[in-house]
């Protein structure tokens, strides 16, 4: 137990020492990251969880188990890639210090199984992410960072109200208390709705996650890699724990997850900015994580590693405007991680993303719901079409100016797909994956031909765009709408006021 406490405190201690001795920041950050990687590997093979209770039954309760292991690995790999990517160049003074605080906050969030400790950990992560977005101190970044902080604080206030109601009914702050019969069906619906609004927003899922695109577009690329790769996982991990504890929640998360996947795909297909496209894709893929509590953690690991690689590449591409990519060859030093990351998220065979998508498909098929299977298939085809846009460009055989962190993550995607499963994929899974990719390519080709044909008709009216849902008032309204919808869905039909 002492080892777990020392490991959890290590990133914060490293940040404190880095503030006193700035020259030690890089090795301290690297050491804390490698310690997290080691802990994730240990927990991945652990047969029983390690629990740690501090300050009594109403205090901190941490649980180091196999459920947290993939998220710890994700945290370590993404932070390690960002550190390597920035190793040879100057970064703003507090950057490495903040990265260590972020690492420690996320480690605590992944292990916390009491709602108060989870709140503290997520608030540490939110404030740290706010400060990371503000690196360049530009006016637009200031507004986006403040908006991110305002949205996060608003939903976490509702989260705290839900935690207080839970304590009044059950006398406990533990996550397992959300399944306590003493809470009552109506009380459970209210508490779950309040808690879920906070966690869904932190996870960047569906309407609650509409803060993602503009935040990613304005943040530095390495910060976007952290946000999309691992910060959103701070809310996903407890959501998957909740889905395992409260069976009635699984159908709600299934609907929210599929709706998020389809919404994100639609906007990603329509956006021409590289970083915004990747952010919309994150909103889509985090939705898919919630569909299956059993396989969601590894799906989050595969997606987070690939998405972090793509954001690190985005810092070095000649232009973020995809409409100009056909005239600008991309050096192989950047094309390799771009291709491997894109193909992994699209589910190409023998990459890590292929195996996690196969597990997800099996989990949805076991539900016996044809509409859910159809929605998942549409989301997967749409994802393939989205990432076809990134692969549809000429390449140049030039290995200069590599993104070391992105290349490392891309090679890990390949190695994990080849080595971890320990078996050959089923022929049916390969055929399905190739078919999904082929349909995605065909859809993207059709969209390009349609756009070219439409552009040739000068008198043709402009195609209508998708509605803008990213204004602050829309963000707050959408979060309230999601909370009310979750409450009404979980509310028992025999509630008196429903008649």
Walk me through this protein's architecture.
The chain has 499 residues and is mostly helical. The strands form two sheets. A two-stranded antiparallel ribbon has the order 1-2. A two-stranded parallel sheet has the order 3-4. A hairpin with a 5-residue loop joins strand 1 and strand 2. Helix 6 packs parallel to helix 19 and helix 13 packs antiparallel against helix 14. The longest helix has 32 residues. The radius of gyration is 22 Å and the shape is globular.
Query: What class do helices, strands and sheet pairing give?
Result: mainly alpha
List SSEs in N-to-C order: HHEEHHHHHHHHHHHEHHHEHHH
Distance between the termini: 52 Å
- How are strands sequenced across the largest beta sheet? 1-2
Helix content: 55-70%
Q: Please compute the radius of gyration using only Cα atoms.
A: 22 Å
| Global shape | globular
Major sheet details = 2 strands, antiparallel
Which oligomeric form is depicted?
Answer: single chain
Summarize the structure in short.
70% of the residues lie in helices and 3% in strands. Strands 1-2 form a two-stranded antiparallel sheet.
Characteristics of this structure?
mainly alpha; two-stranded parallel ribbon; globular; 499 residues; 70% helix; two-stranded antiparallel sheet
List the helices and strands and how they pair.
Layout: H1 2-20, H2 25-44, E1 50-54, E2 60-64, H3 69-85, H4 95-111, H5 115-133, H6 139-170, H7 185-203, H8 212-218, H9 221-231, H10 233-245, H11 248-270, H12 274-289, H13 296-314, E3 330-331, H14 332-346, H15 352-365, H16 370-391, E4 395-396, H17 404-419, H18 427-456, H19 472-490
Parallel strand pairs: 3-4
Antiparallel strand pairs: 1-2
Helix pairs in contact: 1-2, 1-4, 2-3, 2-4, 3-4, 3-9, 3-13, 3-17, 4-5, 5-6, 5-9, 6-7, 6-19, 7-10, 7-19, 8-9, 8-12, 9-13, 10-13, 11-12, 11-16, 12-13, 12-16, 13-14, 13-15, 13-17, 14-16, 14-17, 15-17, 16-18
